[in-house]
Write a structure and sequence with these properties.
The chain is of the alpha+beta class. The protein folds into two domains: 24-227, Immunoglobulin-like (Sandwich); 327-542, Orthogonal Bundle (Neutral Protease, domain 2). The chain is 31% helix and 21% strand. It contains 13 helices and 23 strands. It has helices at 24-49, 216-220, 254-272, 313-324, 351-368, 374-389, 399-404, 424-442, 449-460, 468-479, 484-490, 500-506, 532-542; strands at residues 59-64, 72-80, 86-90, 108-114, 120-121, 123-127, 130-134, 140-148, 158-159, 163-166, 174-175, 183-188, 195-198, 201-202, 210-213, 224-227, 230-236, 239-247, 279-286, 291-294, 298-303, 508-510, 524-526. A hairpin with a 5-residue loop joins strand 4 (108-114) and strand 5. The longest helix is centred in the N-terminal third of the chain and has 26 residues, at 24-49. It is globular, with a radius of gyration of 25 Å.
């Protein structure tokens, strides 16, 4: 989901060659290409039908940017009508991971439909994000539209002189149907742009900048970045990873960043015991704004223009958060978060698990990777505790309600009214810390929240999903005791949290205030008189001495 560590601001671009629909010669060339593609789809479909009656023809998109400085992309879509007299197309109203309704369709201009030979088809718009097309019996509908790409958020599109970043929900109009249909994307770049990077698989023809998704879910979950990119590759446990830097890079050390991310990936491999993908792409764009959004096999990251050559701790924890989502929420998820209905946003009480625990582990796995010191990690955790304890809304809104109300309060879990709301990012991370300590204490250090996450993944990942009750029961099974009252207080009530057990287990305390009038602070520090057992438990929790 959207990262807590930065404000949300991203950009998307997709290149296109020279003038589009401007010269007669280009019009003829385009018409011939449309006819050829349509005939090819028909021939492929007929050939495949000789083998199986279940052949599903793909929807094929061609995206072109002829004049990047105008912020416009031209999109052409070849849609199999498959004998239907009427087909209905839709564009999503929200993006998975970003819990806010958005009007992507407002950026669609000059939409029209035709047959492969250019005959105009009637298009009606029954809803703001839907288009109904009278096919007149044609087996192939050619849909054309322009996209105005001038927005800088994690879910919208941007086109500029030297960069393209494309987000699926804001780009791809698709059929309203219930089947899993392949989708293909062809991207035509300006001559001065060199490369396209995405987690999408290459199409079977192997042609450059031609990609294929098994279904629409995969398509919209795979952002695309194009331009003159810096790419560093590394491999962990047989899976390939790509660190892609784009935009105003400045003196940024891309190779050093990739080396640090490799350590984080290795630590995640140790944590989970496997990597669930063959390919993962870090799309790191330096531009106006900030924030990140997770995807199944990639993450789109935005940061301000590089001000230093090496990754900061804040940046590493930000990326670690988004990467941990490849496991927690993209594969291990609340049951409500899939399969997706892109026109009707889902409500779940489990975002404290999907986002709060991801914040907790995103930070924790950075120190376990040897990329920061115990003091660095405790400072980050202290910051979350302080933010929570200084939020009056913690005594008003429960953690469950914070998740359920995400569509109506704040910006996807960030920026709500502190007087009446609490952030599931912040309180969820703190609850994760307390639950981890609780389980360790109950089991004499033999089990931890790590074991809960792994067991939950084993049982509920993929198509299954988990309910809040199932996650709680998994924690109870690992802890070996009934935790219903603990979860009631921490998750289902607005009562104050109790830090005493966690502090005692790890040999920590809250530092005293330098101001006499103040009783204390929320800054965690290691007890000078900590016992050897407490020191060992602290080191085991953090997984290293910070100097791997």
């Amino acid at each position: 989901m959207l990262s807590l560590y930065a404000l949300i601001d991203h950009t998307i671009l997709i290149p296109v060659s020279s003038t589009f629909y401007q010269e007669d010669a280009m019009q003829k060339k385009l018409s011939w290409r449309v006819v050829f593609s349509a005939v090819l789809i028909l021939l492929v479909g007929l050939s495949a039908q000789a083998w199986t009656a279940q052949t599903i023809q793909p929807i094929v998109y061609t995206i072109k940017v002829s004049a990047p400085e105008t912020h416009y992309a031209e999109v052409e879509v070849i849609v199999p009508a498959e004998g239907s007299e009427i087909i209905e197309m839709m564009m999503p109203v929200w993006s998975p991971g970003f819990y806010r309704v958005q009007d992507y369709a407002s950026k669609v201009e000059d939409l029209s439909a035709s047959t492969p030979d250019g005959s105009t088809l009637q298009v009606d718009r029954p809803k703001n994000n839907r288009w109904r097309i009278q096919t007149s019996g044609t087996p192939i509908v050619v849909l054309s539209y322009r996209l105005f790409c001038n927005s800088v958020s994690v879910t919208t599109n941007w086109i500029g002189d030297d960069l393209a970043v494309l987000n699926g929900p804001a780009t791809f109009i698709t059929l309203v149907e219930q089947i899993r249909r392949p989708h293909e994307v062809r991207i035509e770049l300006p001559e001065v742009w060199e490369q396209v990077m995405t987690s999408l698989n290459s199409a079977p023809d192997g042609l450059p900048n031609h990609f294929r998704a098994d279904d629409y879910d995969i398509l919209v979950d795979s952002p695309i970045v194009a331009g003159n990119l810096i790419v560093n590759e590394f491999e962990v446990d047989g899976s390939k990873h790509y660190m892609v830097d784009a935009g105003d890079i400045g003196q940024w050390d891309s190779q050093r960043a990739a080396q640090d991310l490799e350590k984080i990936v290795q630590e995640n491999r140790r944590f989970w015991g496997f990597l669930p993908y063959d390919k993962y792409v870090f799309l790191n764009v330096f531009r106006r704004g900030g924030g990140g959004l997770e995807h199944k096999n990639s993450t789109l990251l935005t940061a301000s223009s590089a001000r230093s050559s090496t990754p900061s701790l804040s940046w590493l924890m930000f990326v670690s958060h988004e990467y941990f989502h490849a496991f927690n929420v993209k594969r291990l998820r609340p049951v409500e978060l899939g399969p997706f209905d892109y026109e009707n946003p889902p409500r779940t009480s489990g975002l404290w698990i999907s986002e709060g625990l991801t914040t907790y582990y995103g930070d924790l796995l950075v120190i376990r990777s040897g990329l920061c010191s115990p003091q660095d990690f405790l400072s980050r955790l202290s910051s979350n505790i302080e933010r929570l304890q200084n939020t009056p809304g913690r005594l008003v809104q429960t953690l469950e309600q914070s998740s359920l109300d995400v569509w109506t309060s704040g910006m996807s879990g960030i920026g709500g009214d502190n007087a009446t709301t609490v952030s599931y990012y912040v309180k969820g991370a703190v609850v994760g810390f307390l639950l981890d300590a609780k389980i360790q204490s109950l089991t004499g250090g033999m089990k931890s929240l790590d074991d809960v996450m792994r067991l939950a993944y084993q049982r509920y990942s993929g198509e299954r999903g988990f309910t809040q009750v199932q996650f709680n029961e998994t924690a109870e099974e690992v802890a070996g005791v009934d935790l219903k009252e603990w979860f009631r207080i921490a998750v289902s009530s607005s009562e104050e949290l109790d830090y005493a057990e966690a502090l005692d287990w790890f040999g920590l305390r809250f530092a005293e205030s330098d101001v006499k009038e103040q009783a204390g602070t929320w800054k965690l520090e290691i007890l000078e008189e900590a016992t050897e057992s407490q020191k060992n438990r602290l080191q085991q929790w953090l997984g290293s001495d910070g100097n791997k």
